[in-house]
C-alpha cells in the first residue's frame, strides 16, 4: 500500500494535491486531543475577536476559539464519514457477494430489498428521521442512519462484479473441488472486489460528510457536537456574515470545500489507478522504458 501511495504521489498531481490536503486535515483533527478547551463549552474566550497571534482563526459570538473548535469539527466529521463508509461497505459487499454468487431466489430477494432502498428519496427521509429523533441524535446514530441509505449502491455494484466472476473457470474449479459457498465468496471473489471497495470507501465518506453538513445547516444534526456542518449552522444562526464576523463562516466553508475536493481527487485517482486498462498502459510504459 505504501508503494502504491508513493507511486501515485509522484505520478499523479491530482492524487498528490488531494493526499496532501487530507494529511493536513487529519493532522488538525489529531490536534483536537490537545485542545485547551472543551468544544461544548461557551464563553471560554473573548467574543468576536478577529484572527490574531493569540487566536489564529479568531473567536466567535459563543466565546469559542475557532481554531480549536475547528480541530474538533474536522475530527468528528471524518469520524462520521469513516464510520458510515465502514458500515455501508461491509453490508453492501456482503449482500452483493451472496446475491451475485448464489443467484436465483436469494438474488431476487436481496436485490428487491436493495433496490427498495435505492428508489427511496434519501434526503427527505433523513430530514424526517432526524426531526423525529432530534432530542436523542448523536454522531454515531447519524452514521448508522446514513449507512442505511448508502449501502445499496455498493451492494448492486458488487453483485454485478460477482455475476461475471461466477462464470469464470476458477469458480467452477473451486466449486467442483468441494469448497463451500462462504469460502468461495471470501477467497475467490472478494480479492477481485477489494479494489472497487477502496475507491467506493472514499466516495461514501464524501457523501456522508456532505449529507451531515446539509442536515446540520437545517438544524437536524447533533448541534452540541462540533462538526463542519454544525459550525456553519451556528455561524448562520448568529448572522456572522451580516455582522462582519467573516472569519467565523469563512473558515468552515473553506475547510468543507478543501475536504470535498481532496476526497474527490483521491477517489478519481484511485479509480484510475485500479482500472485494468490504465494498469495495462502503465505496464507497457514500464516495459518500453526497460527496453530503451
Automatic annotation (TrEMBL):
<keyword id="KW-0812">Transmembrane</keyword>
<feature type="transmembrane region" description="Helical">
    <location>
        <begin position="216"/>
        <end position="236"/>
    </location>
</feature>
<comment type="similarity">
    <text>Belongs to the binding-protein-dependent transport system permease family.</text>
</comment>
<protein>
    <submittedName>
        <fullName>ABC transporter permease</fullName>
    </submittedName>
</protein>
<feature type="domain" description="ABC transmembrane type-1">
    <location>
        <begin position="74"/>
        <end position="267"/>
    </location>
</feature>
<dbReference type="Pfam" id="PF00528">
    <property type="entry name" value="BPD_transp_1"/>
</dbReference>
<keyword id="KW-1133">Transmembrane helix</keyword>
<feature type="transmembrane region" description="Helical">
    <location>
        <begin position="109"/>
        <end position="129"/>
    </location>
</feature>
<dbReference type="GO" id="GO:0005886">
    <property type="term" value="C:plasma membrane"/>
</dbReference>
<feature type="transmembrane region" description="Helical">
    <location>
        <begin position="15"/>
        <end position="35"/>
    </location>
</feature>
<feature type="transmembrane region" description="Helical">
    <location>
        <begin position="248"/>
        <end position="274"/>
    </location>
</feature>
<dbReference type="GO" id="GO:0055085">
    <property type="term" value="P:transmembrane transport"/>
</dbReference>
<feature type="transmembrane region" description="Helical">
    <location>
        <begin position="189"/>
        <end position="209"/>
    </location>
</feature>
<feature type="transmembrane region" description="Helical">
    <location>
        <begin position="78"/>
        <end position="103"/>
    </location>
</feature>
<feature type="transmembrane region" description="Helical">
    <location>
        <begin position="136"/>
        <end position="154"/>
    </location>
</feature>
<dbReference type="InterPro" id="IPR035906">
    <property type="entry name" value="MetI-like_sf"/>
</dbReference>
<keyword id="KW-0813">Transport</keyword>
<keyword id="KW-0472">Membrane</keyword>
<dbReference type="InterPro" id="IPR000515">
    <property type="entry name" value="MetI-like"/>
</dbReference>
Amino acid at each position: 500500500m505504501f508503494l502504491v501511495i508513493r507511486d501515485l504521489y509522484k505520478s499523479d498531481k491530482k492524487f498528490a494535491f488531494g493526499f496532501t490536503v487530507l494529511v493536513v486535515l487529519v493532522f488538525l483533527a489529531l490536534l483536537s486531543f490537545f485542545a485547551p478547551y472543551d468544544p461544548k463549552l461557551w464563553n471560554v474566550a473573548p467574543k468576536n475577536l478577529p484572527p490574531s497571534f493569540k487566536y489564529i482563526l479568531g473567536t466567535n459570538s459563543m466565546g469559542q476559539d475557532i481554531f480549536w473548535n475547528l480541530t474538533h469539527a474536522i475530527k468528528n466529521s471524518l469520524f462520521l464519514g469513516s464510520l458510515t463508509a465502514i458500515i455501508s461497505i461491509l453490508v453492501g459487499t456482503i449482500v452483493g457477494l451472496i446475491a451475485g454468487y448464489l443467484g436465483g431466489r436469494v438474488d431476487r430477494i436481496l436485490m428487491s430489498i436493495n433496490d427498495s432502498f435505492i428508489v427511496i428519496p434519501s434526503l427527505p427521509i433523513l430530514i424526517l428521521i432526524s426531526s423525529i429523533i432530534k432530542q436523542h441524535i448523536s454522531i454515531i446514530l447519524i452514521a448508522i442512519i446514513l449507512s442505511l441509505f448508502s449501502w445499496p449502491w455498493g451492494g448492486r455494484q458488487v453483485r454485478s462484479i460477482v455475476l461475471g466472476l461466477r462464470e469464470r473457470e476458477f469458480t467452477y474449479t473451486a466449486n467442483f473441488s468441494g469448497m463451500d459457498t462462504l469460502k468461495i465468496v471470501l477467497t475467490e471473489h472478494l480479492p477481485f472486489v477489494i479494489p472497487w471497495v477502496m475507491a467506493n470507501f472514499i466516495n461514501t465518506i464524501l457523501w456522508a460528510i456532505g449529507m451531515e453538513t446539509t442536515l446540520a445547516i437545517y438544524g437536524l444534526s447533533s448541534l452540541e457536537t462540533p462538526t463542519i456542518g454544525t459550525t456553519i449552522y451556528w455561524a448562520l444562526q448568529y448572522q456572522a456574515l451580516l455582522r462582519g464576523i467573516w472569519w467565523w463562516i469563512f473558515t468552515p466553508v473553506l475547510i468543507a470545500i478543501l475536504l470535498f475536493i481532496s476526497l474527490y481527487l483521491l477517489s478519481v485517482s484511485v479509480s484510475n489507478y485500479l482500472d485494468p486498462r490504465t494498469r495495462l498502459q502503465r505496464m507497457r510504459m514500464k516495459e518500453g522504458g526497460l527496453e530503451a
